[in-house]
Amino acid sequence: MSNTRSRRAAPRGEQFLNRYGPWAVVTGASSGIGRAFAYQLAERGMNLVLVSRRRRLLEALAQELSTAWGIEVRVLALDLGLESAGEDLATATVGLDVGLLVSSAGFGHAGPFIDAELTNDIEMVNLNCRSLMEQSWRFGRRFVERGRGGLVLMSSLVGFQGVPLAANYAATKAYVQSLAEGLHLELRSKGVDVIASAPGPVHSGFASRARMQMGQAVDPDRVARVTLAALGRKSTVRPGFLSKFLEGALKPLTRPGRVRMMAKVMRGMAADA
Ligand SMILES: NC(=O)c1ccc[n+]([C@@H]2O[C@H](COP(=O)([O-])OP(=O)(O)OC[C@H]3O[C@@H](n4cnc5c(N)ncnc54)[C@H](OP(=O)(O)O)[C@@H]3O)[C@@H](O)[C@H]2O)c1
After folding, report:
1. Which of 48, 80, 104, 176 for a ligand 1 pocket mutation test, highest count of atoms within 8 Å of Cβ?
2. CA nearest 211: which of 111, 104, 113, 117?
C-alpha cells in the first residue's frame, strides 16, 4: 500500500497549532483511540469538541483536559449513525475555527456474515462509512475555505483486502482507506492534509463489542502519537508491529492469497468462528 510522502516536514508545536488549530473535533472521544487523540491534542494546546453517545464520559474527560491544559472543551453527545447527525455536528461547531477532524467513532463485528444481525451491519455501514464521509465533506469544505486543516480517518489493517469472518467490517474500512487515499492527493494542493491510520489490534473497547480476541495489541496512545506525527507527511500510517508485519507478509501474495491469509488470522481472533 502506498505511503505517499510529501517533501513537507510534519508540523510541530506552534506550527501544528497554526496549521490545524485552534479547534479540533474528535469523534469516538469517550473511549480507546479517540480518547487518546483527545489527550494528545489537548497537550498540544488545541481546543476540543468531543463527540460520542456517552455524555457522562465525555463530560468527565472535558473537565480533566480543560483543567490540565487550560484549553476550551465542548461536549456533543450524538449518535453519529443517525442520518441527522452530520447536520447536528455542523450546527454545533458553527462559529468555531475548526482546523482538524479526527474521525475515530466506529465499531466492528467478527463472525459469520449470514449469522450476524442485519441491523447491526447496517448500523456499522452508517457509522463507519456514511457518517465519516459526511464529516469529511463538511469539514473538508471548511478547511479548503480557510486554506489549511487536516482530516484523520481511522482505517484498519483489515481494509486492504477482503477478510472472511469480518467481511462487512473489513469492507467498511476498505471504504475509509480508499476515501482517505483519494482525498489525500485531491486536497493537498488546497492546504488540507488527509491521513488514513491503519493499525492492527489496539487495546480499547473495540474487541468486546466486535467479539474478537486480540493478541499483540498496541496501546491507543501509540496509535494517536504515530498518526499525528505522520499527518502532513503520509497518506497512510500503520501504527503497531502487527500492522507493519502483516503488510510485509501479505505483500508478495496475490490478492486471493491475501484473503486466504486473513481468513487464517481471523479464525484465531473471532470468538464466534
Ligand atoms: N481497536 C482496534 O483493534 C482497531 C484496529 C483498527 C482500527 N480501529 C478503528 O479505530 C476506531 C476507534 O476504535 P477504538 O479501538 O477506539 O474502539 P472503542 O474503544 O470501542 O471506541 C469506539 C468509539 O466510537 C464511539 N461510537 C460508537 N458508536 C457510535 C455512534 N453510533 N455514535 C457516536 N459515537 C459512537 C464510542 O463512543 P460511545 O459508545 O460513547 O458512542 C467510542 O468512543 C474505529 O473506527 C475502529 O474501527 C480499531
Report:
1. 104
2. 111
Side chain identity, residue 79? D
Specify if 87 maps to a domain: yes
* Helix, coil or strand: residue 154: strand
Q: What is the pLDDT of residues 157-193, one digit of tens each?
A: 999 999 999 999 999 999 999 999 999 999 999 999 9
Residue numbers of the domain that contains 109? 13-267
Whose CA is closest to atom 11 on ligand 1? 104
Q: Distance between CA 92 and CA 222 in Å, rounded?
A: 30
The edge-to-edge listing of strands for the beta sheet with 236-237 is 73-77, 47-52, 23-27, 98-103, 149-154, 192-197, 236-237
Task: Judge whether 169 counts as a catalytic residue.
Answer: yes
> According to the model, what pLDDT value does residue 140 have?
98
Residue pair 144/169 in contact (Cβ under 8 Å)? The answer is no
How many domains are contained in the chain? 1
State the chain's maximal CA–CA distance in angstroms: 52
Q: Mark whether 173 is an active-site residue.
A: yes
| Ligand 1 atom nearest 57 alpha carbon | 40
Q: In this structure, is residue 132 part of a structural domain?
A: yes
Q: Give the CATH number, domain containing residue 224.
A: 3.40.50.720
Q: If you search the block for the grid coordinates 489537548, which residue do you land on?
A: 42
Q: Where are the beta strands (DSSP E) in the chain?
A: 23-27, 47-52, 73-77, 98-103, 149-154, 192-197, 236-237
20 lines ligand 1 (CB under 6 A): no
Which ligand 1 atom is the nearest neighbour of the CA of 173?
47
Is 165:266 a contact under the CB 8 Å cutoff? yes
